[in-house]
Amino acid sequence: MATMTMYPDDERLPRGERAAFNLYAVSAVVLFVLMMLIGLVMRTAQGEWMSVPPNLFYQLLSMHGAGMVGTMGMVTTAVMWFFLRKYVKLHLWAFLANYLLFLLGALCIIGAVFLGGYAALWTFLYPLPVHAMAMWSGGAAAWFLVGYLLIGVGMLLFYLDAAWAIIQRFGNLGRALGLQWLFGGEIDPNHPKAVVASTMVIIANVLGILAGAVVLVLSLIDVADPQIAFNALVMKNLIYWFGHMYINATIYMAVIAVYELLPRYTGRPYPISRPFLWSWAASCVFVIVVFPHHLLMDYAQPRWLAIMGQIVSYGAGFSVFLITAWGALTNIHRSGMRWTMPSRLMVLAMFGWAAGIVPAILDGTIAINRVMHNTQWVPGHFHFYLLLGVLPMALALIYHVIGSREHAPPNSGADRIGFPLYLLGGLIFTFAFLDAGHLSVARRMATHLPEWQGTDHMGAIGALLVVLAMLYFMARIALGLLRANPDARAAHPAR
Amino acid sequence: MVYQNVVWVIALVGMGLVALGFLYIISQVGRPADADAVRGINRRSARWRLTLFIILLLGFLGASYGTLHSFPIPAQSGPLAASQVVNVVGRQWSWQMSIEGQPAGDTLHLVTGSPVEFRVTSADVNHGFAIYAPDGRIAIQTQAMPGFDNKILYTFTAPGKYMVRCLEYCGLGHAPMVTEFDVTNPTGG
After folding, report:
1. ipTM of model
2. Which of A295, A450, B89, B188 is deepest in the core (most CB within 10 A)?
3. How far apart are the C-alpha atoms of B67 and A121, rounded to whole Å?
4. Concatenated DSSP letters of A116-171
5. Which of B14, B145, B146 sits opposite A298 (nearest CB)?
6. Whole-angstrom distance between the N-terminal and C-terminal Cα of chain A?
């Protein structure tokens, strides 16, 4: 069971760990702000409030997508590391190697985009990277793909270290997932939810990263010799298998923060249960096989794959609604929890994930996908649960760590202004996308029709509010993490 | 009835219900419960969760049956039962559309009330073939993929000018990659 002590000793960050965590957290918030500024520029350009040439727009779009997904992967890895290290012996070198490889990969991607002009987006759909029509060179495409490979290798190293540590402690990954208790037996109440979630992520995302490695290498071969042709449908399946699992893994890594921290803030135990274990076992399978819902408009795809994509999309919602969101709400209900930044962010995160699932499930329905696919409905739903779900989970942990150094959960006057600004901006921004999707506004277009631009303007206003809030969060987090004495604290009771 | 508007209402209702649930819980946070009350909360929570599970399960089964029993994508092997067949080729950054048996380049005229088969492919990279109805909403779409034919079977119900837009990013000329065609009533109206 998760600890009820607010700042337990086993979460202390000794010098090396502290430096590593600070690197991850500060880099992440700086990158998020930069990527959000790019997002703001794109929404403003679509609404013709500023002029951005199409080639630059698509470069920015590529940078924004790769940057956001990569940064989300990076910071949520830090969430998983922060809690998992309490239960198994992780090696700091693996955590740091992941960070360094991420930075190297990011540099390759930034160079490919801004020096090489790469603009085939973060999904690099084959064979677009080599069919640039003189927009960028094969070399730029290669640097972008190598950047992905470096980031993937870093994450794989971290996962393999974590998998080895989990196996050392629990015997095998199945026992760590709690499969031995699915059909009976007395569940060990001290079996950590963080281990269950981490194991699920390792299994799913290692498969995803390996699929990604295959398609990245094939794409590099295509760059080297464009005469070599691969099956475009198989390549697309591999890309979405990789991409879907990578971004979904960020949610499942980040939610560990809620499982671990929420009971401390509510002062009420949040015990492990059989439905919880069932939900994570099912989610492990679901997240691996659900990716065909990205290919529902590829009619050449075997019909059973499309049906599986729809059915599993529906099924995945059960775990989110009935276990994680419901469990968190029950834990909060009449708890007397004080509203501080970590608790606010955790409740927002649960709402963002649960509410964002609704338009996602609708889009996963084949009949609906026919009129919603590749409209702004899609960025609408994924921004909803990334901006209002996953990022607040990671911010909750970072704010909690700042609290551990200030002896109390952060709740300054500026925090109380920054949070509603972020919430309001996030809601305006995401609902502008969803509204545009229902009006059939296409996604990923540098120029928009005049009748589409009303939603662009709303989106730009929402984005501006989010950027302002994030600028404040960035300064608050950087100062909070870097200036406080990490050892000047004592264990605090819950709440 | 515009299909997208129905989806929009379902989404707003679903997200609104989630929001109401959260707002209720948030409104109760400031009323801390004692140990007995917590046990009662946990018991009621388990019962309500079971109820919600049953509701979601019924919704899951109903929605799956309702949207899949008549499969929304036509069989891709063999010809479809269409009175008109349109071959579509996407390439960076234009559409080539021609009625089967007629030379390419002629203006495309289709009629309402009888099924049209669109055979969609690409000469280079992935494109998205989306038909926008005269009201500006997407009527139907599929992907245009090199090496594959994706077949749409669609019956136009309203005459007018239909736009084709590319909905899969395909490079610099993605946004202006459009074309159009006319749909008229069989009598010429």
Report:
1. 0.95
2. A295
3. 32
4. T---S-TT--TTGGG--TTSS-HHHHHHHHHHHHHHHHHHHHHHHHHHHHHHHHHS
5. B145
6. 17
The answer to whether B5 faces chain A, any CB pair under 8 Å, is yes
Contact criterion met (CB < 8 Å) for A440 and B67: no
Query: Is the per-residue pLDDT at B104 higher than 80?
Result: no
CA dist A70 and A79 (Å) reads 15
Contact A22, A482 (CB under 8 A): yes
Find the length of chain B: 189
* C-alpha radius of gyration, chain A, whole number: 22
Q: Is the pLDDT at A261 greater than 70, yes or no?
A: yes
State the average pLDDT over residues B2-28: 96
Q: Do A371 and B137 touch (CB under 8 A)?
A: yes
Q: B4 vs chain A: nearest CA distance in angstroms? A: 5
Task: Label residue A486 by pLDDT band (50, 70, 90).
Answer: low
Q: Which of A262, A370, A377 best probes binding to B when mutated, by most B CB atoms within 10 angstroms? A: A370
Please check whether residue B146 touches A, CB under 8 A.
Answer: yes
Q: What SS3 class is residue A377? A: helix
Gyration radius of chain B over CA positions: 24
- How many DSSP H helices and E strands does chain B contain? 2, 9
CA angle A316, A320, A321 (to 5 degrees): 110
pLDDT digits (tens, 9 = 90+) for A376-408: 999 999 999 999 999 999 999 999 999 998 888
